[in-house]
Design brief:
Distance between the termini: 87 Å
Number of strands: 6
Shape: globular
Largest sheet: 6 strands, antiparallel
Number of helices: 32
Radius of gyration: 33 Å
Bound molecules: adenosine-3',5'-cyclic-monophosphate
Structural class: mainly alpha
């Protein structure tokens, strides 16, 4: 019992110390880990060889408590790894990560293997240790800590993509290194040699099994989120439980890698959390995790540094040389990855190239952090390992981490300066000035307004304005730069607008998350290619992407309507919201941006915005033409949500001004919430592909005898064509013909385009003549079609010579270039 009190006492003192030291790190602009390491060294003196004797009782107690704390190091893996990995997983931008996933995984996993091999093989001949022990050391120093590099990248405004790449790489290499770590520890403690194949198999099971298990658990947590509703404390508890449960269950019972499972679960929560939880609750969950991570990080660093000091007297000068060897090997491994492996991945088009200067920063910024320290502590406390292996690995790993924190971290900024990456790039500088100019105007306006409403003399306001106004930026900007700055401001504004709609709960979280990550892409595209990049990136939402194409395929081939209905509803909603926001952007650009831009740049920017607006309108018109009532329902839902928000704002204000009581407010809000629940679900899109109704709308079928009608009905299949889709491609083999039920298609002929409307058919010629398709036929907007497969077509015309004759007649006329009456579009 007394022991527990001593440990708690030591913990409390530690927390107080790290709490007070954290602001110091910020003030001195040094990495937090550096300050923590220093604290650990000082505390180590209390416990280690220079333990003070005969001092005050509390001091002796503290020293004893710290010593006890250190003895529990073997539990560290279980205590600290889950929170460290879980927070890391929560804080990466999964959407951006997904785009570079292949590259990140490859980089991370291969990088760890390279590090383990290079460090292991470099030390083996010189350290007098077994190869397995040297490889274990390689695994312990494998995980990189991205915090410093990410911080630096944010400071210098590097592309978001790079930050995600570095953070993602670190996340997965933590997992890979820890899996290898467990493998080597098992190898060393059991003493049996492991065959290469068994090792590989173990790794594969650990990885794949761990990922699957983690994803499953993360998904289950999603259900729990719905259950906990608006309670932030409950949601946080669920995530903390998730991190530990996944880890323990994975390691002990399921037989997969717990760390991989934690990482996978965290990524799933990072995606699902914002959509299943209310924004404020999700924010609280993230804040709670930052707190846990801070505690975990601090304790690990302090305790590991203490351990290093305690075992220092046993260390020889030789160990210092070995640490330097680790430094060189680890840097070499990182160089191999960035200068050999990365170009290869770029060549395979799995990712875009990274600038040379950024590469250097990533190499030198490959610091080691808490995860390495935890592994080192775990090795030190692992009784099953031979003692000399424990000392060797722990001391060198901690020594190396110290080196990265004491030498690499502080030199990162000077290196940036050397590489000229430290100053805001000219563009960023101009952007800053522009923002400054815009806000200054706004502030001036408000100051004048305030003076007016408080009845203060206007000279007073003018004086304040003159005094407070920062130097106005000089207008020496080229047209190109002016346009770039304008575009970047626009992208930032777009992002803000989405965020605002999210906070006001006008837009759903899933939708906003995807819109926001699309603005991140716009930003990188503008930086890379300027206006061209912006146009390309913003046009993305207009195109049909693989998931939507897959849904179309599933509808046509398998008759599955649901996926297509969801994909189209998603698209319509996305287009609608983007169009609203682009409208707002247009106003912003004319009112606020245009006045401060150079004239040509202004014209180009406004033209580009107009173009974007036009394209969105075209896409929306296509949707509205085919699905008018659905489009209206979507827009109405958006408006209803705005109304609900305004209503809540008004109730809250009245409560604040004490015009209504708490009870009345609660009652009003309950009533509002009930109505809000009604619009919380998006209406379901009816694709309008009911076979019987569709057949009914083709006049040609009415003219057929009853028996032929029935035969046709059983062979026709409904289908939807997307705007601009090439339904039939010239020169290809013909497999089916089409009847247009709604919408129009364009037949692309050498002499021009021919429009076919509802009631007309196409694709009959190739079936009749068995020759390749004579022309390409494209959908103009969404088209409802009835499709008749080749085999059924033959059967139908065999039984119905009159129909055959009709098809042949139309085909012959078409071939001759005239338009027979019966193929003219008829109104359905
Ligand atoms: P098919 O050759 O199978 O594929 C292209 C289709 O375009 C063709 O069948 C006809 O249905 C259609 N088509 C070709 N020429 C004309 C035309 N002059 N007028 C209308 N439709 C045509």
């Amino acid at each position: 019992m007394l022991d527990l009190i001593l440990v708690l006492f030591a913990l409390a003192i530690l927390l107080l110390a790290v709490g007070l030291l954290q602001p110091l790190a910020t003030r001195l602009a040094v990495p937090q880990t550096l300050v923590l390491a220093m604290l650990g060294v000082v505390l180590g003196l209390f416990v280690g060889p220079w333990q003070p004797v005969g001092l005050l009782q509390p001091v002796t107690d503290l020293s004893e408590g710290l010593e006890l704390l250190n003895l529990t190091a073997e539990g560290f893996l279980f205590l600290f790894l889950p929170p460290l990995l879980f927070t890391a997983g929560l804080s990466v931008d999964v959407r951006l990560l997904r785009e570079d996933m292949a590259a990140v995984l490859l980089l991370a996993v291969v990088a760890v293997f390279v590090c383990v091999l290079v460090v292991g093989l470099t030390l083996w001949p010189l350290a007098g240790m077994s190869l397995a022990a040297c490889l274990l050391l390689g695994a312990v120093v494998g995980p990189t800590d991205p915090a410093a590099v990410v911080g630096v990248f944010k400071d210098i405004g590097a592309p978001r993509r790079l930050t995600t790449l570095v953070a993602g790489e670190s996340l997965f290499n933590d997992a890979a290194a820890i899996v290898l770590f467990s493998l080597f520890v098992a190898l060393l403690s059991q003493g049996e040699p492991l065959s290469f194949l068994t090792g590989l198999e173990t790794l594969a099971i650990a990885f794949l099994g761990g990922s699957l298990f983690g994803i499953l658990a993360g998904k289950l947590a999603g259900y729990a989120f719905r259950w906990v509703g608006r309670s932030a404390v409950a949601a946080t508890s669920v995530t903390v439980a998730l991190a530990y449960l996944v880890y323990i269950l994975g390691e002990r019972y399921v037989g997969v890698s717990g760390v991989v499972a934690v990482v996978a679960a965290a990524l799933v929560v990072a995606v699902d959390g914002p959509t299943h939880l209310v924004p404020t609750v999700w924010q609280s969950v993230k804040t709670a995790w930052q707190q846990l991570e801070f505690w975990g990080n601090s304790l690990v660093f302090v305790l590991a540094s203490m351990l290093a000091v305690i075992s220092l007297p046993d260390a020889a000068g030789e160990d210092l040389l070995l640490v330097l060897l680790v430094v060189v090997a680890a840097l070499a491994a990182r160089c191999l990855v960035l200068y050999l492996l990365l170009p290869l991945i770029v060549l395979l088009r799995l990712t875009r190239p990274i600038g040379e200067r950024f590469k250097l920063v990533i190499v030198w910024g490959g610091l080691r952090g808490a995860v390495t320290m935890v592994l080192a502590l775990a090795v030190a406390g692992e009784a099953a390992l031979p003692e000399e292996v424990r000392d060797f690995v722990a001391l060198l790993a901690i020594g190396y981490t110290f080196f990265t924190v004491l030498v690499q971290a502080p030199s990162l900024k000077p290196i940036l300066r050397l590489l000229k990456l430290d100053r805001l790039p000219p563009l960023e500088q101009q952007l800053r000035d522009r923002v400054l100019a815009l806000s200054v105007e706004e502030v001036d306006r408000q100051v004048r307004h305030a003076a007016e409403s408080y009845d203060l003399p206007s000279e007073l306001a003018e004086r304040v304005i003159l005094k407070e106004r920062p130097a106005t930026p000089e207008p020496s900007m080229t047209e190109d730069d002016s346009l770039l700055v304008g575009l970047l401001t626009l992208v930032t504004r777009e992002r803000e607008l989405y965020m605002r709609h999210l906070h006001e709960q006008v837009l759903g979280r899933r939708l906003v998350a995807s819109l926001i990550s699309s603005t991140d892409r716009h930003r990188d595209a503008v930086r890379d290619e300027g206006l061209k990049g912006w146009l390309r990136s913003t046009a993305w939402v207009l195109q049909f992407h693989p998931p939507q194409r897959l849904a179309i395929w599933a509808q046509r081939r398998m008759g599955w309507r649901q996926p297509l209905a969801i994909a189209l509803a998603d698209r319509f909603e996305l287009l609608l919201i983007t169009r609203f926001v682009v409208g707002e952007l247009r106003d912003y650009a004319t009112e606020r941006l245009a006045p401060v831009m150079q004239s040509d740049a202004r014209a180009a920017l406004l033209a580009a915005l107009d173009e974007r607006q036009r394209e969105l309108d075209t896409a929306l018109t296509a949707a509205r033409t085919r699905y008018p009532s659905y489009s209206e329902a979507l827009a109405a839902r958006y408006l209803a949500r705005i109304a609900l928000r305004l209503e809540a704002v008004s109730y809250n204000r009245q409560l604040e001004e004490q015009l209504i009581s708490r009870e009345v407010h609660a009652d009003l809000m309950r009533n509002r919430d009930q109505r809000s629940a009604k619009v919380s679900h998006r209406p379901i899109l009816d694709l309008g592909l009911e076979l019987a109704e569709m057949i009914d709308r083709v006049p040609l079928f009415h003219e057929l005898p009853q028996a032929s009608q029935q035969r046709l009905a059983s062979s026709l299949r409904p289908g939807l064509a997307l705007p601009d889709e090439a339904i039939v491609v010239k020169g290809r083999r013909g497999r089916r013909m089409y009847f247009i039920v709604a919408g129009e298609v364009l037949v692309e002929l050498p002499g021009g385009k021919i429009r076919l409307g509802p009631g007309a058919f196409f694709g009959e010629m190739a079936l009749l003549s068995r020759e390749p398709r004579s022309a390409t036929v494209r959908a103009e907007g969404y088209c409802h079609l009835l499709m008749l497969d080749d085999v059924d077509f033959r059967e139908v015309i065999r039984r119905d010579p009159e129909l055959r004759h009709h098809f042949e007649e139309v085909a012959a006329a078409r071939r001759a270039g005239e338009q027979p009456k019966s193929s003219q579009p008829k109104e359905a």
